[in-house]
Amino acid sequence: MVAVLWTARYIQTPVSILPRMANVTGIGGVFLRAKDPDALTKWYGDALGITFMGGGHFSMFVDETPGSVTVFAMFDHDDSYIGDPQRQSVMVNYRVDDLDAMVARLTSMGAAIDDILVEENGRFTWSTDPEGNRFELWEPGPLH
Fold first, then answer.
1. Which parts of 2-59 fold into alpha helices (H)?
2. DSSP letter at 120?
3. What are residue 138's DSSP bridge partners?
4. Averaged confidence pLDDT in the chain
5. What is residue 114's three-state secondary structure?
């Protein structure tokens, strides 16, 4: 009964006077291990059009697109959605502005591309980089 009273009290309390709790506001970065960082940086630049700063292995994305979201999700360890469970524990989803053009570029470079999946959230496909890291490409739908 105490929990119900506590919850009811806070539901009726204006948000501005609730105790502030620290929250994650988005993904601050994605970091990949690479056997050859120079080669993998070049591949991501050539294949996905990512611009790296100062000739290094570092890039920043500033997204001012209204409605843009970043998803943070957990999958069962044995789920192959994010790649081989024995060698990959993270998959990066890259938001793209033209999935067909991106697929054409990757295909011209010899990359294997999965079939495009169309869902209410947009269009998706998957591929792997030269070191075997599976990644997802997402062209947001009209809801985003």
1. 2-11, 37-48
2. T
3. 95, 124
4. 80
5. coil
Q: State both tokens at 36.
A: 């050859």
Domain ranges of the chain: 90-144
pTM: 0.70
pLDDT per residue over 30-53, tens digit each?
878 888 989 999 999 999 998 888
Q: Which amino acid is at 112?
A: A
**Phi then psi for 62, rounded to 5 degrees?**
-115, 115
At the top level of CATH, the class of 90-144 is alpha beta
What share of the chain has pLDDT > 70, as a percent?
78
Separation of first and last alpha carbons in the chain: 41
The stretches in the chain having pLDDT less than 70 are 1-19, 21-28, 67, 72, 144
Q: Contact 138/95 with Cβ under 8 angstroms?
A: yes
